[in-house]
Input
Amino acid sequence: MVVYLTVCCSARSTPVAAEASVETLAEFQGNGYGTDVVTAWALSIQEEKRIPLYSTAWDNFASQAVASKLKLINYGMNLHID
Output
């Protein structure tokens, strides 16, 4: 049996860019697995000559920690109006 602790895939994808989606089992968060899989995902996107993008919510501190560890640059903000 194979158990995946962390998974990263393209949540959104175009011929120009792809946006990462990453999930880590709660009991394994904080061990660097998210950072590792996002790095591998980003490299594969760059090999395809596309732009890897990463987004997170203001209240998703685990995802923000991944972005911080990877020294990602904040390039924009979403605004939702209900």
Observations:
- The beta strands are 6-13, 17-24, 51-54.
